[in-house]
Amino acid sequence: MELQFLTRCLYGTNDFENVENTGSISFPIYQTATFKHPGVGQSTGFDYSRLQNPTRQHLEEILASLENAKKSFAFSSGMAAITALMEIFEPGDELIADADLYGGSIRLFDNVSNKNGIKFTRINLSKEDPREYITKKTKAIYIETPTNPMMNVIDIQEMARIAKENDLLLIVDNTFLSPYFQNPIDLGADIVVHSGTKFLGGHNDTLAGFVVTSNEEIIEKMSFIIKTVGSGLAPFDSWLIIRGIKTLALRMEKAQENAFKIVKFLQNNKKVKKVYYPGIEGHKGYEIMKKQARGFGSMISFEVESSELAKTILKSTKLIPFAESLGGTETLLTYPTTQTHADVPEDIRIANGITDSVLRLSVGIEDVGDLIKDLDQAFRAYELDDKAVCLQGA
Ligand SMILES: *Cc1c(COP(=O)(O)O)cnc(C)c1O
Q1: Which CATH number fits the domain that encloses residue 305?
Q2: Residue 100 and residue 148 in contact, taking contact as beta carbons nearer than 8 Å
């Protein structure tokens, strides 16, 4: 029976053959480091949990199925997944990476991958043509779409076409939309990466990461890498992500519905200079998003009139925590300048539009009226501050 997306969030490929059938509805946590061999040269299919563990395997099957891919590999964090993926490259290889990436990815590329001899050319791929930067050594194009935090949208099909023509791999970090809203492999990408910490886990309680692909050569390389470097996801954490994915669709829908209402609130606020959300019809990437995704997600960035106002908002929200991360049930307010993008050189950060007046909201599944009330009082806290200053001046 071919299962639809919502059902696959619960059952994955519905393959319970590898586990004892006790009738357990929840997939068991195989909290074991090693497995007994039936005899010399014989295996149950599981030997040692660094190589594979039934709970991790079940999770990997679910995610591969949601991304319409042959295989996924679950790692201990998104960064562990991207770090492991970089091992498919050799010293001397070059990658073309989008300029506006998750700060941790930029830090990895500049400080670790670079040291290992991999070179990165960073350009704004929502505007510039990568073909001008391809050399004989270029092996891959690496993108996120929408980008973090500026919400630039990149045409995945167009990038895939350029990648194929030039014999490059297209790697897409699909964290912001999750497979519920976007499937890059269907659009021609070769590899998808995820921070499973975000929408997939969805509860701000577990770190995880994924590499997903249908390319047999990469599957073989990644199988070798995950067992060799040892950063595969632990059984209990795998189970938490399995549980999180059960409600992926419901959470994504509710969070997006809330996001649209918060975008309206921000657009009507005179102290907000610009709202970055790809679901706004005037947004540069709106038409591409409509073509390649099934939704716009629940990440919003916005620029307020001054950095003082941004800082006042950050310390004045009562319900919404000022915290790093995204994609969870709880709405979080982030300050990219000092948090997610603190390690990105200032000139690049500013060139990407991440000024110290930009705030990022990851909208959760709370009552949206409560969220708007909280934001509204945080904006007003600034007016009160303003008045206090005026009175002092007088
Ligand atoms: C958070 C994040 C990562 C890193 O994932 P971790 O699970 O925090 O290691 C990578 N890419 C994007 C887009 C992210 O938001």
Answers
A1: 3.90.1150.10
A2: yes
Of 178, 211, 245, the domain-final residue: 245
Q: Of the candidates 211, 245, 279, which is a domain's last residue?
A: 245
Query: Using the 8-state DSSP alphabet, how is residue 4 labeled?
Result: P
Per the CB < 8 A criterion, the answer to whether 321 and 334 are in contact is no
Whether ligand 1 lies within 6 angstroms of the CB of 297 is answered as: no
Query: 98, 102, 105, 326: which to mutate for ligand 1, most atoms within 8 A of CB?
Result: 102
Distances (CA, A) of 223 to 69, 84, 142: 15, 10, 21
Beta bridge partners of 276: 301
pLDDT for position 14: 67
CATH value at residue 94: 3.40.640.10
CB-side neighbour CA atoms (13 Å) of 305? 8
Q: How far is the CA of 75 from the centre of ligand 1 (A)?
A: 12
pLDDT-wise least confident of 8-22, 63-77, 261-275, 303-317: 8-22
Residue 389 pLDDT exceeds 60: no
Residue-range definition of the domain harbouring residue 12: 5-245
Non-local CB neighbours of 312 within 8 Å, separated by 6+ positions: 378, 381, 382, 385
The SS3 assignment for 277 reads: coil
C-beta of 200 in contact with ligand 1 (< 6 A): no
Q: Is residue 94 lining ligand 1, measured as CB closer than 6 Å?
A: no
Whether residue 360 sits in one domain with residue 233: no
**Number of structural domains in the chain:** 2
Instruction: Say if pTM beats, i.e. exceeds, 0.85.
Output: yes
**Do 207 and 305 share a domain, yes or no?**
no
Query: Mapping DSSP to helix (H, G, I), strand (E, B) and coil, where does residue 220 land?
Result: helix
